[in-house]
Amino acid sequence: MSDDWETVILGPKWAVRVRDFGLDDWLKLNCPCGHVAIVSTEKMKATQPGYMRLKTFEHKFRCRKCGNNEGIFWSVVRRKDAS
Ligand SMILES: [Zn+2]
């Protein structure tokens, strides 16, 4: 699966805002337990104001496997075939 995605750098992580996400951008969440999830940013864009920095609510990201919400590493990814 990882071969189909490439990491996108939208800027310094502290500065990334909800409105920075493009239509093809997804959020990749790496939990310390090893679980990796790739989630749509659609819901985030619908529920958070555009100026909101991800840093502000990154603690709300929760691992679906172990329930942990600390130390989750997020990055922005995009399908390779989407141009
Ligand atoms: Zn986990």
Description:
This protein has 83 residues and is of the alpha+beta class. The chain has one domain (2-79). 12% of the residues lie in helices and 27% in strands. The protein is built from two helices and four strands, in the order βββααβ. The chain has helices at 42-47, 54-57; strands spanning 5-8, 25-30, 36-40, 73-79. A four-stranded antiparallel β-sheet has the order 1-4-2-3. A hairpin with a 5-residue loop joins β2 and β3. The radius of gyration is 12 Å and the shape is globular. The two termini are 18 Å apart. Zinc ion binds at residues 31, 33, 35, 63, 65-66, 68.
**How is the biggest beta sheet arranged?**
4 strands, antiparallel
Q: Hetero groups bound?
A: zinc ion
Gyration radius (Cα, Å) is: 12 Å
Secondary-structure element order, as H and E?
EEEHHE
Task: Report the count of strand segments.
Answer: 4
Portion of residues in helices?
Answer: 10-25%
Q: Oligomerization state of this entry? A: single chain
- Unreliable residue runs: none
Q: Which structural class matches the secondary elements?
A: alpha+beta
The separation of the N and C termini measures 18 Å
Strand content: 25-35%
Shape: globular
- In DSSP terms (H or I, runs of 4 or more residues), the helix count works out at 2
Overall mean pLDDT score? 92
Neighbour order of strands in the largest sheet = 1-4-2-3
Q: What count of domains describes the coordinates?
A: 1
